[in-house]
Design a protein that fits this description.
Number of strands: 21
Structural class: alpha/beta
Shape: globular
Distance between the termini: 63 Å
Radius of gyration: 25 Å
Oligomer: single chain
Number of helices: 13
Strand order of the largest sheet: 1-17-4-6-8-16
Helix content: 25-40%
Strand content: 15-25%
Length: about 500
């Protein structure tokens, strides 16, 4: 049995999203009959209009005293012609702008309709009573999108199928990606900064959530979304008044102590932890949700390879949403863990499992070389953009935008994956003025002293034309100034009257 569902429960929302983007972009998105794709014949912009664009963008740059600290590149996506450049080939730290090449490489090598499978295998089919005699093997593929509603769906499906009992362990095979738990220094660093760990069997961003819940008793109850992955020692108190809080402390590898004050009739207080053994966390969540649905599980979750996997029977196959929806976690919400998962996964698919950071970096480098950039012209160190060793140019990021925008089967989904100005994602509170609302679709990037904005702008006056752009700043201490520079440049692109053309 198998199943997959939309990224969010319910009907496919992308039909409405396409309509909304068409309206917000003034018809430029998905417009029919106009010069839409890179390489198609389109009238060039006039020299006067290009000179005006040059003057306006340089004025923004000079207003903030930026010279070497900023790189800008703007292209007409209909023709591929460069409209404006300033330090366009200089390497800058891109921050989360790094997620654009990850998106491009994954869509290129895996395909837009690729779905990450998670397979449940058994030695023999369930009995007539719905009993599995023996273990259930779970094989992961690095799905970065498997969340609580997905695990609920898996458990619901198995229960509806008639499963009543598993008389064996839940054996978890996470060998498709490199196992990171053996690097204790990395684990300690991830725990310290509350960053999740990569795993072929990832669940809920590999973060365990526990909460103190008010009740009628003498002590708050514990809501444990890890279903026993952590042994929880409850030291919280229930009070009628006071300032509510929760304090969670680790006690060993998989024990935590909860202290705090929970108010009667108040809200629950939540604490979150990095799962140091993500595959086991997946297994405990699966077991807990099956038990909630009346399916008995006599064994325990444990990690291990699947011997003679081809000889086993498929009990259930869960599939993620299509890759075009999975990458929204990168473009719209800038999820670092998802970016690293995809980096490892594309490496495994391109160069064979187990997926590693090195293999993923190699795949991204190959993709960028395929776009025409020499290997020495950029540096890739991670997928999330947190590394300051990454070096990309504004011209390179625009080339990625052009590559994804120019493919008819990818264009709409690519734009849907980006944050939309004044509407959603990391641009929900930026560029929300009447002129720019919905007309900039881009990927943001922010680190201390680093900022970038790369994507597509739809000019008000140029019907059916789209501009690919990238703005990168390194060295600005004030992030507000960096945002202001990016907003002003994007706004100038939207307001640019490039509709006048030479005869």
């Amino acid at each position: 049995m198998s199943g997959h569902r939309p990224r969010y429960p319910g009907a496919d929302w992308r039909v409405d999203r396409r309509q909304a983007l068409r309206v917000l972009s003034g018809g430029a998105l998905l417009a029919a009959g106009g010069p839409a794709f890179a390489g198609e014949r389109a009238a060039p912009f006039s020299e006067d209009s290009l000179a005006e664009l040059d003057r306006r963008l340089h004025a923004v740059r000079r207003r903030f005293g930026l010279r070497r600290a900023i790189g800008i590149h703007v292209e007409d996506l209909a023709t591929g012609a460069a409209l404006f450049s300033h330090n366009a080939d200089r390497g800058y730290v891109p921050a989360s702008g790094m997620k654009l090449p990850i998106t491009g490489a994954c869509l290129h090598y895996l395909g837009p309709s690729y779905r990450f499978p998670t397979r449940l295998l058994v030695d023999a089919p369930p009995t007539e009573e719905g009993v599995i005699e023996g273990p259930v093997h779970v094989i992961g593929s690095g799905d970065p999108s498997l969340q609580r509603h997905d695990m609920d769906f898996i458990a619901d499906s198995l229960a509806a199928f008639g499963l009543t009992e598993i008389r064996g362990d839940i054996v978890l095979d996470d060998s498709f990606l490199e196992v990171q738990e053996t690097d204790q220094a990395l684990v300690r660093r991830r725990i310290r900064y509350k960053e999740p760990i990569q795993s072929a069997l990832g669940y809920h961003w590999n973060r365990v959530e526990v909460a103190g819940v008010p009740g009628d008793g003498q002590q708050p109850a514990v809501r444990d979304e890890g279903y026993g992955y952590y042994a929880v020692q409850n030291r919280m108190v229930l009070r009628n008044s006071g300032r509510p809080y929760i304090l969670a402390q680790r006690r060993g590898a998989r024990r935590i102590r909860l202290q705090g004050r929970i108010l009667r009739g108040g809200n629950e207080r939540v604490a979150r932890f990095t799962a140091t053994e993500p595959a086991l966390y997946f297994g405990y969540a699966l077991k807990g949700k099956l038990i909630e649905r009346g399916v008995q599980v006599t064994g325990e979750p444990r990690r291990g390879p699947v011997p003679a996997a081809r000889q086993k029977l498929l009990l259930y196959r869960h599939e993620s949403a299509p890759l075009t929806q999975v990458v929204e976690a990168l473009g719209k919400y800038s999820n670092n863990w998802s970016a690293e998962q995809l980096l490892f996964a594309v490496g495994a698919h391109r160069w064979g499992p187990p997926g590693t950071r090195e293999k993923g970096v190699r795949a991204i480098e190959e993709y960028l070389v395929g776009l025409g950039f020499p290997a020495g012209s950029f540096t890739i160190d991670d997928g999330s953009g947190l590394s300051r060793k990454n070096r990309l140019s504004a011209r390179l990021l625009v080339a990625v935008v052009r590559d994804l925008y120019s493919q008819p089967e990818l264009r709409t989904d690519f734009l849907c994956s980006l944050a939309v100005s004044g509407v959603d994602g990391t641009l929900a509170r930026r560029l929300w003025g009447e002129e720019t609302l919905g007309r900039v679709m881009a990927k943001t990037g922010t680190l201390s002293g680093v900022s970038s904005l790369s994507g597509v702008a739809f000019p008000l006056a140029a019907e059916n034309r789209a501009l690919g752009f990238s703005v990168m700043t390194n060295g600005l201490r004030n992030s507000w100034n960096a945002d202001a520079v990016e907003n002003l440049i994007a706004g100038e692109l939207v307001r640019w009257n490039g509709v006048s053309r030479s005869a």
